[in-house]
Amino acid sequence: MNRTKQAGRLTGAERKRAIVAATLAAALAVAGALAACSTADEIVLASYNVENLFDAVYDGTEYASFDPRGERWGPNRYARSLENTVGVIGELGGGDGADILALQEIENHRVLSDLAGELSRMGYRHKLLVANDGPFHNAIFSRLPVIAARTHTLGLPWTAPGRYILEVDLDWEGRRIRLLVNHWHSKVRGDRETEPSRREAAGIVARRVRLSAGEGIPTIVAGDLNLSADEYRRRAGEYPTALLPVDSIGRYDPRKSLFLTARPGEATLSDDEVVLYSPWKAALYDASSEAVSPPGTYVYRGRWKSLDHIMFGPGFADGDPDTGDESPDGRGSIGIGEFRVVAEPYMLDSRGAPRRRRSDIAHGYSDHLPVEVTLRR
User: Fold this and answer.
1) Fold of 13-376
2) Domain locations in the chain?
3) pTM of the shown model
4) Spans in the chain with pLDDT lower than 70
């Protein structure tokens, strides 16, 4: 065999990595095409699982009920779904939209572009989605410039395609912040049976938060984790979950879980554990914190679950920013303001649960509610 030709060949895994890298480079070029520094000292960051936002073009990866070749899904219902999604996004940030918006369950670049067209009046100059062979993807819209991005694919063979972590670096008036956008595996195959996939994702997040701190970059973890902040308690401690309370440190392999605290100042890193501040933990367990209403973003069998998260590594303070050097970049902590679940009446059904999107019902929104938080520098 010709050695030159052999050396030029790529394995399947190498080809896949090369395609992802090329796609990411192209997407990043688009995201940063209009780069300009934000001058806002206060911004809103939000996360929203839009639930099955499929377009009306057949790609072969759609769920059967969203196949546009059938009678249940087509251009009119897709247009209504876009309209409903844009309406919810318009409720964020007190009606101005979030400055940074993390989305889950976006089908492809066509949907991203269609959303961008509908959201053009809201000043989102930067958008990013990295496509693979999955049915839907993570994406962001941002008024802050995107300056770097990468993806981290989950490796378990039975994990659904498209389940990757999107890592994005943003420029906030000369200050670099990092956002990890997640959509972890659902429990459709069983709670305990699917926990290894979520623990794998937690391990990747932990490594990235630790590395980010070493690079001097404050890091935020957001998205639909398909776990409540108090999941371990809900499971009665039967097995280790991907999200664990800090008082469980020492019981399980710390490389496969994120430990949650109710106070920003207790977000810490060590060679083993990564402890993140979770506003949900504060709302659930800290009596001095204001209760969040509704007490979750998703309803299952009549019970609220806090599946959608915004969590923080070291370098964040409760309320106003701290001018000390406790942050990874030595520029003082970023202040965390109010954490909110956005739940307007029209987004809820007659039971008070999220009014979900279905291919046979045009007026649905999503089975998740968005969460948002104000940040100050």
Assistant:
1) Deoxyribonuclease I; Chain A (3.60.10)
2) 13-376
3) 0.90
4) 1-39, 156-162, 286-290, 362
